[in-house]
């Protein structure tokens, strides 16, 4: 049988309200009373009810973590970091798998039923209106990996994807490539759209020929392998910028299956820098997204936002960097 608050109060020789205040954050209780209550609770093995505490404080300490792309290893790292960082702050993540759901209404209603204190939308594949729907419902929200907009009306933490696309084009130019291709993630993803814009515009400025633009159906190895077959139709392509490392690995294996050597016949540039990118079988040159920094900042922001829901929206962008391995030819001398 679970130990009750009444039993703790009787052993400590205090009122039940004194026990309740002892285990309520910020409640007033004397040092002597706290000592007696904590000693009695330890003796009896009492654990305060989190549900009862939430009713008293009107705070559940639940943070909705809304995401998709669970099949991609990069997102498993994201979930690991998010859940551990929230739990360190005594917050409890409530994970919601969108599973193809693109209408926010059902998800908003689900999280309202759980009375979450805040929501983190952790995906780049949804439009900005998805996060805005939570704000409209009165739920504090952060869009992590969301689209950068100067006039955003919700908190956004992530990167400038358009600039990252420009970085990819610049990387190809530095290595002497002339005819290149883009193999993006799903075309509907805002991150894909922005990286494509930055890549194509900068490639043209640098005199590169973007001979092929193709999109993978999802962020998986097989989707990358399938989409690469279309790119291989144009034998002029010297290098391919992929919108995700796992997509890029599928594309690399498709190129090898077609008899092409990497990087001698064709080069590859990935995105994210997942652990597998450093494997000898791929040695993938990639653009590293500072995932840990983004998540730490998101958790810090959601904690502050829950305590001050009226704070003005912030845009926090982090720089990316090229991690040079062996899937591209070396930088050419000027």
Automatic annotation (TrEMBL):
<dbReference type="Pfam" id="PF00356">
    <property type="entry name" value="LacI"/>
</dbReference>
<keyword id="KW-0805">Transcription regulation</keyword>
<feature type="domain" description="HTH lacI-type">
    <location>
        <begin position="3"/>
        <end position="57"/>
    </location>
</feature>
<dbReference type="InterPro" id="IPR028082">
    <property type="entry name" value="Peripla_BP_I"/>
</dbReference>
<dbReference type="InterPro" id="IPR000843">
    <property type="entry name" value="HTH_LacI"/>
</dbReference>
<dbReference type="GO" id="GO:0000976">
    <property type="term" value="F:transcription cis-regulatory region binding"/>
</dbReference>
<keyword id="KW-0678">Repressor</keyword>
<dbReference type="Pfam" id="PF13377">
    <property type="entry name" value="Peripla_BP_3"/>
</dbReference>
<keyword id="KW-0238">DNA-binding</keyword>
<dbReference type="InterPro" id="IPR010982">
    <property type="entry name" value="Lambda_DNA-bd_dom_sf"/>
</dbReference>
<protein>
    <submittedName>
        <fullName>HTH-type transcriptional repressor CytR</fullName>
    </submittedName>
</protein>
<dbReference type="GO" id="GO:0003700">
    <property type="term" value="F:DNA-binding transcription factor activity"/>
</dbReference>
<keyword id="KW-0804">Transcription</keyword>
<dbReference type="InterPro" id="IPR046335">
    <property type="entry name" value="LacI/GalR-like_sensor"/>
</dbReference>
């Amino acid at each position: 049988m679970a130990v009750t608050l009444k039993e703790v109060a009787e052993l400590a020789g205090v009122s039940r309200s004194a026990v309740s205040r002892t285990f309520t954050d910020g409640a007033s209780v004397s040092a002597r009373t706290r000592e007696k209550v904590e000693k009695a609770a330890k003796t009896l093995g009492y654990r305060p009810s989190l549900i009862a505490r939430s009713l008293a404080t009107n705070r559940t300490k639940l943070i909705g973590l809304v995401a998709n792309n669970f099949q991609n290893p990069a997102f498993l790292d994201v979930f690991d970091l998010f859940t551990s960082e929230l739990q360190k702050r005594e917050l409890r993540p409530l994970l919601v798998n969108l599973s193809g759901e693109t209408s926010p209404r059902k998800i908003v209603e689900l999280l309202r039923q759980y009375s979450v204190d805040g929501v983190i939308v952790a995906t780049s594949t949804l439009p900005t209106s998805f996060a805005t729907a939570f704000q409209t419902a009165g739920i504090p929200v952060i869009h992590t990996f969301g689209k950068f907009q100067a006039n955003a009306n919700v908190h956004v933490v992530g990167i400038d994807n358009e600039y990252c696309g420009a970085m990819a084009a610049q990387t190809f130019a530095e290595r002497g490539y002339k005819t290149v291709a883009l193999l993006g993630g799903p075309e509907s993803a805002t991150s894909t759209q922005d990286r494509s814009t930055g890549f194509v515009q900068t490639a043209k400025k640098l005199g590169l020929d973007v001979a092929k633009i193709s999109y993978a159906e999802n962020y998986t190895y097989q989707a990358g392998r399938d989409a690469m077959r279309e790119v291989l139709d144009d034998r002029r392509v010297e290098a391919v910028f992929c919108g995700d490392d796992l997509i890029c690995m599928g594309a690399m294996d498709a190129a090898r299956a077609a008899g092409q050597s990497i990087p001698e016949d064709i080069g590859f540039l990935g995105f994210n820098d997942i652990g597998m990118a450093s494997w000898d079988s791929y040695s993938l040159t990639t653009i590293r997204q500072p995932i840990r920094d983004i998540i730490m900042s998101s958790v810090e922001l959601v904690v502050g936002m829950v305590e001050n829901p009226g704070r003005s929206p912030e845009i926090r962008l982090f720089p990316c960097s090229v991690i040079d391995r062996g899937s591209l030819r070396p930088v050419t001398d000027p």
